[in-house]
Structures are given as C-alpha cells and as structure tokens.
Input
Amino acid sequence: METVRAAERELMARLPEGALMQRAAAGLAVACAELLGRVYGSRVVLLVGSGDNGGDALYAGARLARRGAGVAAVLLSPERAHPGGLAALRAAGGRVSADPARDLARADLAVDGIVGIGGRGGLRPDAAQLVRTAWESAPVLAVDLPSGVDADSGEVPGDAVRADATVTFGAYKPGLLIDPARERAGALRLVDIGLELPREADAEALQHADVAELLPRPAPESDKYRRGVVGVVAGSARYPGAAVLAVAGALRGGAGAVRYVGPAAEAVLARFPETLVHAGPPDKAGRVQAWVIGPGLGDESDALDDVLAAEVPVLVDADGLRFLTPERVRARTAGTLLTPHAGEAAALLGRGREEVEAARLVCVRELAARYGATVLLKGSTTLVADARGPVRVNPTGTGWLATAGSGDVLSGLTGSLLAAGLATRDAGSAGAYLHGLAARRAAGPAGAPILASEVAAHLPDAWRDVTE
Output
C-alpha cells in the first residue's frame, strides 16, 4: 500500500488543503445514498476512528445530513477525531452519539470509518463490540476497506468488519481481492480521486478484454500442431475419472490434439474418441507442445521423470506435486506451472493448511520463489504468481466450483493454453478465468450444485463470453 500512500501524498501536495478528502467523501456519500435508496429521513450511524479514514466518514456524513438524513457519529477516540470533519458534520446538523447501541439499533446504514489502509492487527475489543452491534442492526458500508483486514495481503489477523459493501479510493487494494479479507468486503465500488499510480501493481485482476487478448485464435492455415498438442499423464486404476476430466478440459480448452498416456485409455476413448492414446512412457508417446501430469496419478511417479525432462512447458498438479523438489523444478529449461490447492501448497512449503489459507498472497509468492516456477494457488481466491510481474487475482468463479474433479478440468484447460504458446503466467491466469466463468454458467444465475464434467462442457460458452 506504500504505492497508494505515496500517490496520495504527491497529489495532496498539488491540491488545496482538504481537497483530496472532499473528493473521497463525495464518492462515499453517493454510495451511501444509493444503498439507502432514500436519503431524506433515513438514519445513518458513522463509526469513526482517528485519522483520515474517520475524516472521510465525517465529511460524507455531513453531505448526507445536508440532504435530510439523521446522522450520528460514534467516536472511538474522541480526542483524535478529525477536527474538520467533525465540525462539518455538526454544522450540517449531524451529532455525536451519546448512546451508540440505541442509535445503531435504529440505523438504516452503518458506515465503517474506524481504520484505514494503514491499520495493522485486528480491531480493539471496544471497536469489535461496536462492529458486532452494527452488523446485527443495519447494512454496513466500509470506507476504503473493512476495518481490521490487512490491505496489503488480504489477511485477517483478528476481529474485523464484515461489510455489505466497500467504497475504495484510487485503486483496488490487494486485501479487497484476496481471501480471507475479500469475503468481508462485500460489493466493491471504486471512486476515482485522481491518483497517478505506476503501471506496475502489487496485484492485478484480469477482466474480459485482458483475457481475450491472451487467448489463441486459429488462423485459416492452422493445423493441430499450430493450435497446440498437449500431453496428459493422469488417472490410475483407482481414479480413471481424473484422466477423463483432464482430457475434457484440454479438448474443450482449444487444444489441436490431446495425447493421453496412462492406464485409463479405455475410459478416455469411450468418452472422447478423438484422443490419441499411448501406453507410455511419455517420451515415447509422440510430439507434444506441453505436458500436464498429476491428476489422479496415485503413487506412480516414474512418468514424472520423463515429463520434467521434456523441453516443453509442464503443468504439475495433484499427485504429481508430491514427488517434486525445488531442485527438480529449477533444473528445467522450459516453463513449469504448479497448480496446488491449499493443502498441497502447505505440504510443499512444510506449513499447516490453515496457515496457507490465512496468508494466501504470502504463500503463493514464497512457492514461486522457492521452486523457480509459476504457481497457481487454487481456492476461494485463485492466485497466479511468478518471479516477475504482479500476482494475478482471479475474479471469476463460484462456491459451487468446490466439487470433485474441477481441478482436473482446470489442469487440462490450462495445459491446452500452454501448448498453444501462452507463457505459464498467462496460461494460468486465462485458464483460471475461463474455468470460473464456465462454473458460473453451469451453476446458473441463482446458483445450483454442479459436476466437474458440466464445468468442462461450458468452457466453449466461457470462451465466447470473453471473446465476443
């Protein structure tokens, strides 16, 4: 967040005193009005901490009071409340609450202005109790980010606000995009306050247009090799379905051809007769432009040596990750993409799963650095990291995607993008994006249970959503 703070300091040096805060307060007041629906006669309670975050809330409260709202400010540190904002609120007819519990019980909206992006650690006990009361009483709108979450990492180190919506200023903070903090932010709204930010960010979330630029398009002269041939080493006697799902993801992901190596050839051919099958080993299966290895592989690790020795990009998932060492990955000359979920990432890092889930951004960066690879960390927030650019945060998906086999589909899909020539970082990002869109398609607008095979079936729809 130092980048945002530096941009704010630079802009404030060029503007009249207080002008930047007024810009933020104006955008915040508009968002409050939209949530309320009707400003005149509504009751708004401001939870006000010290510093500029509380000042934003107070100035926004003054704007609402001038439009006929009854606005009360709960001052957590009365002696440190923003003096200009407090004076503006009082001048507009707002007041300082003498009975916070009573005011919150009657509120139509609570505004969280307790802690800004400079906050560290969870909320203090008195603030945490106020926040619980607010949550039980009225919708909560957070100012810049929910108080108590870490703006830089998305970690939630203690008690924190759970907002229905968050209005953030100048730029999306990583903590608003990455779980566990993301789920506390609610609906996000960005207010442009005129910050001049560097092009290189700490984290970025691709949108339709960004992904469309990455996706390969076959030309009239294309053949299966120009489109990309991906090899899939997956499945076992115990898990033949993993092979079928990985091949489904690869075929639906645009591969010119899929070569399957493994014991589930009969099941794969029964479902996808266009698949090229081989008994193995992988280095005898024929020409490929990328390999996917690991889904449903079980304890069979011999094929991993062949695949890692290949001079083409390799995606390692699921059981394949159990046999990796940093040295084996770093020795490769072609790109490597690792796609663990939190439990597999924990094993690779020698940590507990709960540590990974609580610090996803830190852990994906550590994995990428340790293995010298691109890492796609799956989960409620899917992250893609390597040693070069900002971490990419995937904005698509649904909770219904947490179903057996969905990761196998993602592996095949992403492998097909690697075979088409995308760099590991771009393939991981585009694959996760399409996978999430396909899951939303399968679940429907209201959300419903889905199967991994249904996600694979909707990949062409997701592709069209992005490119049309």
In short: The mean pLDDT is 92. The CA atoms of residues 213 and 360 lie 27 Å apart. The two ends are 35 Å apart (CA to CA).
